[in-house]
Amino acid sequence: RTTGGGVLGQIASTNPEDTIEFPFTSINEYNVTLNVENDLGCGGDTTKTISLKPIHTLTSDGYLETFDDQPADWLVDSEDGLESWVLGEPDFTGYIPVTGDLGWYTNLPPTVGYLENSWVESPCFDLSALSTPLVQLDIMKSFVPGKDGAVMQYQHRVSEGWNSLGVVDGGINWYNSYGIFNTPGGSSFGWGLSQFEPDEAWVRAGYAVDALADFSYVKFRLAIGTGEEQSMGNQGFAFDNFYLADGVKNSVLEYFTNSASAEAGAADGIVEEFVADYSSQVIDLQYHMDYPGEDPMNLNNPIPPSVRAFNYGVPNVPYAVLNGGYKPEYRYDFSDPTQVPNGDDLKSSSLDISPFDVSLSANFLSSSLEGRVVVSCKESNFDNNIQLYVVVIETLVTAYTGANQTTAFRNVVLDILPAATGKLLGNEWGVGVSKYLDFSWDYASYLENEEDLMLVAFIMDRDHDQILQSASLEYTPGTGQETRTADEKTLAIFPNPAYDYAYINLGPMVEQAGVLRLVDLTGRSVLTSEVLPGYSIYKLDISNLSQGVYMVQWMDSGVLRGHGKLVHVH
User: Fold this and answer.
1) Is 39 left (phi over 0), alpha (psi -120 to 50) or beta?
2) CA dist., res. 357 & res. 388, Å (int)
3) For residue 386, what are the β-bridge partners?
4) Backbone dihedral angles phi then psi of residue 493, each to the nearest 5 degrees
5) What is the domain partition of the chain in residue ranges?
6) CB distance 432 to 376 below 8 Å
7) Which residue has the higher pLDDT, 524 or 76?
8) Topology adopted by domain 491-568
9) Is the terminal CB of the chain with fewer CB neighbours within 10 Å at N or C?
10) In this structure, what DSSP letter does residue 352 have?
């Protein structure tokens, strides 16, 4: 029946196990009456009012409800008709309301013995297009400690009832209390207070709802279990800005290692297994340090590892930092099984729906690459400083032998663009604001195989030391013209300036004899050294040379394979 009493239809059944289906033609409230009669002629009936709601099919844009337009598809209900929910500007003590910024809040009466078990119910959602959905909302708590509380619940099928979403101490600012006496939504755990210190500002809470990813029908409710307002000033619960979207934050694990360290070698395997288990959610960047032993991958370009280790205060290797290490638990020294990257930390550190998108494009040419990264803001009034890094990595390096005879090294950082310190994009952001960086990189002499190149761009909130978003791009053959040929690679030379010895990185292991030649600024050859097959990094004795600047030339089969500049000091 309609709420006005009009009969829409009747369906009869003689089987108590039947599931009755009825096609409603419009979204509205209806009265559904069940009449039953047994074989002896005894019967009865019951009537329930149901509210049909539209189903919001979620896409990559997600669903955000600010409640400022007073949506009609969020409804208040209760067990016994006691409902204190108000949609308006919350008047909680200490909170400074913003004109026009509406939210749901309770307005508890002072009636002694009052007990309210009510809720605000969402419309229905189809989450089947999401892979890692997250829910976020702003909340304020003002409860009698240990007695009152709130919980968020979901319902997939009516027959399954309501299920509490999440656990205590899970997610971000999620549930914090066990043993809530007034059992909101029938739950003894949820949001509560252990002592009366109510929120005076919105608190952003978030939780991963991966288990609901395949549901084509699900709805939520915010339920409270509370008594009356007491002299202490308890006011119940408030919430605003309900956001449901796919977890599109791409996490970054920065790993500091050393090929000469057996301990780091063992940790390499742990990192590799972790990234393999969560390959769709995280990428690792491996910085090779110059301690505790000499590492040729550090000699290639020691500046990026040194700068990033300094930024994080890396005490030793092995060491890893997840998403900027903005919490102590997202830093790992591999000293015991609890100090290694893990799935729980990855999930909790990735719960924020990123306020930014990062788009990365590049053209991989024969001896260089060029590209652009675009950073776009999705959040209004974002005023933290953003730092952008573009990292060049080689996904597989096999030219060197490390501890335990290891000859394969993953995701080795070759360089950071435009510099190891990144690029400051500033703090002037808002919805739709985009900034970009054009970059280029000449293939270094120590690059083994350009087909193993990968670019990773990530942005960091400098004010909170948190990586907010990242993007990666694997090598694909590009098109275009270059003015520099592949034979004109720049040699990596370390240290530079040098005293008695300089290390020249020749790239892949030399397969046939060649010559290193030093030429002074007058064009005179001052030193020639034969390089036999098998070398990748050659130690050059320059102790007998005069102080000055020299051009280094690497000749192979009469062809100039590389060149560089060396400064010699005494």
Assistant:
1) alpha
2) 12
3) 426, 461
4) -130, 125
5) 1-52, 56-246, 251-474, 491-568
6) yes
7) 76
8) Immunoglobulin-like (2.60.40)
9) C
10) S
